User: What shape does this take?
Amino acid sequence: MKIENVHLMSPAYRKDIDGLRAVAVLSVVGFHAFPLWIKGGFIGVDVFFVISGFLISTIIFRNLDNGTFTFSGFYQRRIRRIFPALAVVLAFCFAVGWFWLLADEFRQLGKHMASGAGMVSNFVLWGEAGYFDKSAETKPLLHLWSLGIEEQFYIIWPFLVWLLWKTKIKLMRPMLAIAFGSLALSISAGKIAGSDFYSPLSRFWELMAGSLLALHALHRPALPAGNPAVVRAPEMRSFPLSIGAIRSILPDIYAFAGICLLGCGYALITKASVFPGKWALLPVTGAALILAAGPAAWFNRVILSNQLLVWIGLLSYPLYLWHWPLLSFARIIGGETPSASVRLSLILISDVLAWMTYVFVERPLRFGVRGGSKA
Assistant: This one.
């Protein structure tokens, strides 16, 4: 195992992935601010899990292929990605809590700050009230549970992939076994209300869905897109549904199917659903299909790659960090759910804080002051 710090290769940038990030974060923010209007918005976190599994596993696989993978480089990259913005938000929560919270509330905040910084929030929250309970609204760092699950996955996953790679074992079958095992655990544990919402073992399959897609993408050429007539073999032009023609529209078929599944998830899943379990198949499969469609699919190229969604996607991580503490503190200080106008104002403030965090904290530490990639 190499231990020297070697620059890790990054996957080619795709605007549509940032657009999908925007859809995910907007749905989560919308659910937290207006839960009666956007009832299934919390499944945006599951979309994030798929995106993360796809991008991070692509980095691991490509660097293993090229002999440039190092654990030190991988974890340095994760630290630069996660902790700078998180530290700013934790400092803000500490300052607000110091002046506004009661002693018991401040002690609980301190516990949640420590668990958030240690990436074990999901375990701490698992032992407390459920994600959808009213008491959850007064926990400013409740949303860090998802970071805990993601980082716990990345403590285990790189070592497992490296071990399989070194022993020349093909990755697909072990990955499928892990994914289906985790999914089965999620479905079975879901029969006990709330028992698997915070569990990493019953959530890992969602990240594995992205990882499986990354492995498949690296060993198969990208799906073609464009005029079907261009890709048809000459001897097959007389057939309206030639293999080439079908392959040319597959990206759009994937994207359309993904949109439908994701839309069904947002429309049908509510906090009353036994979630994740079987219901999580809708957002996870939908997100995976949209990613599989690639940047050439019409929806990905025109809708997800538009400038506004890409901009929101770039801010998605700090926006996710900022929005919930503001909503939660407003609820604690006011003693009741803030009015719709106040909640909307807080979301707009979250946007500003997210932009400031991205420009002045996250981007300089990840890419350097000149914008060159350092991560």
